[in-house]
What does this fold into?
Amino acid sequence: MSSDPNVTGPRTEALVADASEALRRRKGGRVQRVGDHLKREWQLYVMLIPTILWLLIFLYKPMYGLQIAFKDYSIFRGVAGSPWVGLEHFQTLFGNEQFLRALKNTVIISFYSLIFGFPMPILLALMFNEILHQTFKKTAQTIVYLPHFISSVIIAGIVITAFSPSAGIVNTVMGWFGIEPIYFLTRAEWFRPIFVGTSIWQEAGFQSIVYLAAIAGVSPTLYESAVVDGASRWQMMWKITLPSILPTIIIMLIIRIGNMLEVSFEMIILLYQPATYQTADVVNTFIYRQGIQGGQYDLAAAAGLFNAAVAFVLVMTANTIAKRYSRTSLW
It folds into this structure.
């Protein structure tokens, strides 16, 4: 190989120039492809504009107000004019017994909902898939879907009436067996089972639609091959249906874990009372009382930010574990 600078120098410069020109053309071609795509599919992007505006206005713009969690906020001074106090509100939160109680209740209720509530839509979807009588199947689906479309206020009214100590059906049935009436909604130990059971009754049927759609995507040839091999309905459910919808189950589980601290605020507000604060008060109701009723907007913002941070960590952790062990994840 020659070391003459007159030979290697111009040749190297020519190669660098060619590489630069190729890179410029590649970038130009990429921009042109993007431009051609936008011209060809511009209707789709126009349809996206309302959604993007909604996200910017109602989800991203309010993030500007998160800074009041680190300020001594005053509605008269505004967000920009309020002085910074650092982590003072977070120190106040973790020294507040009511917040710690609310956090504990939130975790316990969410854990119960995950353990008992998450499998129910899956079981319903599997049972609906095994029903052969179409009229009965559609009727049953309509009945279990219906509570989802009923207002939480009406659902709470039904629950209060059902557990009433004087005219409630639960106490009436208990009276047939000589059991004294119990005012369930004033007993702290009964609030969590009632709340979790109500949530399952209201949402399990509607949530089963996702799993029914996943089951509908399973190839019929798998079932045909299993029938030829002599498999029973039970074996086909365990060996074909469940493994086929496992990716959907994992995705829904990750989303459910991310929402663990988002306990149904409306239902708790409608059902709880001071007598059941010990087991019914959750982070969202604490934020409501401190922020809306008590006017401590900065402390409530700190609690909400803590809630969001924990949810983010839970989603990332669940997604990482799922990706590592099942190769199924949100991203």
